[in-house]
């Protein structure tokens, strides 16, 4: 072996050893597995699994801007001159901005599906002179908890709207659907829903009522009762209000009936409804109500005037983006309401609705039986332009 070969061999050995030591010095850490949010499609679109749990969560809501004009284009209630005594205070637009946050959860258990729903609203706007002691100023209207309930299987408890309305359905797709009122809304509930299959379902609901459900009225003796239409200004016993309903649904439509008992005023009220799918574009509905008035003209459930009332209307879809909605209503006290609008989806999730409303107060001027929905004149006309982004 000559010196040249020896040197070359030594250099190669040194390079190999150095390379091995350099390779040993570089340690590449293994990536930790990432826990991605998983889609949950069991309860519909928009749900995902809360990481580390079997609970599915959905978050949604909407941002809404309303512009109301005229005598019935108000979303705070009546534009009654006698509230402040100065009709000039109502000679302006009624505007309201609302942010609504909604949450839904769902989870399968050995006792059935465990669900929750919440809806919280934050609003800013003016009151158009109604219920505002210092005039028609624009202001923050606070935060309201509109829904917060828990449901396991068919049992539901918590804050909801009365089954007298939710089970039978609201009075059409118009904005001002209570020109002739059809029942109280906000209440705490203990409910049980029964699904018998073949289109048959039923509900039984024990309810508390709410002092915010109605406006001013008078009793049979002509005594002024503020918010007496709520039916539950004073809850003075363990006896709840009771609502029961049955429903039959088929491809052509639905027949529904509900009955209620207001325990505070000991009054009974009922409603029946027929929904018909006339075609792919046209749906029609009609609803009638009847209630007793032995102790008071209006209670938490029977908020219309007199014993009976009727509502009817429908929706016609011109195309995927545009629909026409209408409602006509009347009651035993000769109150009449007409509402119609056109709703247009500019893009998915953003809808503009323009509505025109008419209200006739059949007892205007009679202090013991006024409509109190729009009490500043016998015949009122107005409208609302609504912008809403839903997500």
Automatic annotation (TrEMBL):
Principal place of residence: membrane
Any single biological process term in GO: monoatomic ion transport
Membrane-topology descriptor: Multi-pass membrane protein
Recorded GO CC terms: cell outer membrane; pore complex
Single GO MF annotation: porin activity
Secretion signal span: 1-22
Superkingdom to which the source organism belongs: Bacteria
Pfam families, A to Z: Porin_2
UniProtKB keywords: Cell outer membrane, Ion transport, Membrane, Porin, Signal, Transmembrane, Transmembrane beta strand, Transport
Transmembrane segments: none
Compartment(s): Cell outer membrane
Entry keyword Transmembrane: yes
UniProt comment concerning the protein's domains: Consists of 16-stranded beta-barrel sheets, with large surface-exposed loops, that form a transmembrane pore at the center of each barrel. The pore is partially ocluded by a peptide loop that folds into the pore lumen.
Function, as annotated: Forms passive diffusion pores that allow small molecular weight hydrophilic materials across the outer membrane.
Family the entry assigns: Belongs to the alphaproteobacteria porin family.
Stated name of the protein: Porin
Phylogenetic classification of the source organism: Bacteria, Pseudomonadati, Pseudomonadota, Alphaproteobacteria, Hyphomicrobiales
